[in-house]
Design a protein that fits this description.
Number of strands: 10
Shape: globular
CATH class of the largest domain: Alpha Beta
Radius of gyration: 18 Å
Strand order of the largest sheet: 2-3-1-6
Number of helices: 5
CATH topology of the largest domain: Alpha-Beta Plaits
Structural class: alpha+beta
Distance between the termini: 21 Å
Helix content: 25-40%
Largest sheet: 4 strands, antiparallel
Strand content: 25-35%
CATH architecture of the largest domain: 2-Layer Sandwich
Length: 221
């Protein structure tokens, strides 16, 4: 799978500003629905795994593209993005570091350890009410593990990767609750680590709102 990473090296942002960066770039490149995930004619959301994701890594804004289609759109961003606007502040882009690579993705006979570099939003409002009603720690863990595996399988489906018959995705988790703010609403996310027999490229997100930087995954070595 192709993966491009664009690092805006001279810019420092806060986590709460990443959605503004995404909005600015999405408006700037309205013809590329792969960037903003809205139908250009109707304006309705396109529900799919985001192929272009906006993140904050160690304070520096990063834009990541995966698959051939997204990497092609990414070239337009790299060539023409000379400034960004965050609220009323315009920031020139002096340094753009671009990395293009082929990465592995999918089921593995091996097990890998991952860490969430940003909170994972694995529950919606309904499933969080269900989670809150569970008092047993092991049962809560089991629910989160199932949600995590579901996120991996959902991501795979949208990336046209299908787990073959007999290939069971397994996971072990160690999570703690973390409050997050999403679109002005307070929600519960999770921080921590997990093990699974599935290869996930560094800096991709799983769960909800990955295009805004949530659920970013890093492999532990």
């Amino acid at each position: 799978m192709k993966k491009s990473t664009l690092l805006l090296s001279n810019i420092r942002l806060k986590p709460s500003q990443i959605h503004k960066l995404r909005g600015f770039v999405g408006n700037l490149f309205k013809d590329y629905d792969v960037i903003h995930n809205h139908d250009p004619v109707t304006g309705k959301p396109i529900y799919r795994y985001p192929l272009i994701q906006f993140k904050l890594l160690r304070g520096t804004p990063v834009i990541i593209a995966i698959t051939d289609k997204a990497v092609e759109a990414f070239a337009a961003i790299f060539m023409t993005l000379e400034k960004i606007r965050i609220g009323e502040t315009e920031i020139p882009v002096y340094e753009k570091d671009l990395k293009l690579e082929e990465v592995s993705f999918g089921y593995s006979a091996e097990t890998f350890m991952y860490e969430f570099a940003s909170p994972w939003i694995g529950l919606n409002q309904a499933s969080y009410r269900q989670y809150s009603g569970i008092t047993d720690h092991a049962e809560r863990n089991l629910m989160l593990k199932r949600k995590l595996i579901g996120n991996i399988l959902s991501m795979s489906k949208y990336l046209d990767y299908w787990v073959e018959k007999g290939q069971e995705i397994r996971a072990e988790i160690r999570m703690k609750e973390r409050p997050v703010n999403l679109k002005g609403r307070s929600m519960i996310g999770f921080a921590g680590m997990f093990k699974t027999n599935f290869v996930i490229p560094d800096d991709l997100g799983i769960g909800k709102s990955v295009s805004r930087g949530f659920g970013t995954v890093k492999k532990k070595i």
